[in-house]
Design brief:
- The chain is mostly helical.
- It has one domain.
- It is 75% helix and 0% strand.
- It is globular and about 55 Å long.
- It starts with a helix and ends with a helix.
């Protein structure tokens, strides 16, 4: 995995996805269309697609002989991509009703690790390996500490950035989209930690 390329692609895909959401919401308000479906259905789908793009770049850490293209190839047969999309949409909806973990600082890492766990199980579950998908205590502590760090970084940066966007686009409440975008970029270390945990289980 090329870390620089992963960061560049992550920032680019997150930026494109976030701008697309802003554009859709902005034009929906101009024509008095319902914004709710965009904020709660369309934008979450865009966020999941962006998350999959990021995961595809990080997942090869588990197998150095693979690349992101093989990740997408695994999702092609038997409708696995649709299955994964449905799993992540349902997980996102479920997490939104659970206190504390409905915050993006927890919800997005959970969704990213769930994505990796599902694909990892599809790839190696039938190969006779004894797999433990739940992270160990040490791995969980590392991830939790990083979540707290990501929370403080995002809290400070998203406030100023969202205020600037609200003024420029005459919007109100862009902070959620801005925060989600920053959290998505900051998911890379969480994914790396979890992928390293899974890699240790393979011979």
């Amino acid at each position: 995995m090329n870390l620089l390329w992963t960061v560049v692609l992550t920032v680019t895909s997150v930026g494109v996805g976030t701008v697309l959401c802003f554009w859709l919401i902005y034009h929906a308000r101009e024509v008095d269309s319902p914004v709710w479906i965009l904020e709660h259905v369309v934008c979450p789908i865009i966020r999941i697609v962006v998350l999959l793009i990021v995961v595809a770049q990080v997942y090869p850490v588990i197998d150095v002989n693979s690349d992101s293209v093989e990740f997408w190839k695994m999702l092609g047969p038997k409708g696995l991509f649709n299955d994964l999309l449905h799993i992540l949409l349902f997980a996102g909806l479920l997490l939104s009703f659970i206190p504390l973990v409905n915050h993006p600082v927890f919800a997005l890492p959970i969704q990213s690790m769930l994505t990796i766990a599902v694909v990892f199980n599809w790839q190696y579950g039938d190969a006779g390996y004894s797999l433990q998908l739940m992270p160990s205590l040490a791995t969980t502590l590392k991830i939790f500490v990083y979540m707290l760090l990501a929370y403080f970084v995002t809290r400070e940066s998203s406030i100023y950035l969202s205020r600037w966007i609200d003024r420029r686009l005459a919007l109100d409440g862009s902070i959620r989209l801005v925060s989600d975008a920053i959290y998505l970029v900051l998911q890379i270390p969480v994914m790396l930690i979890y992928c390293s945990f899974l890699k240790q289980q393979l011979p």
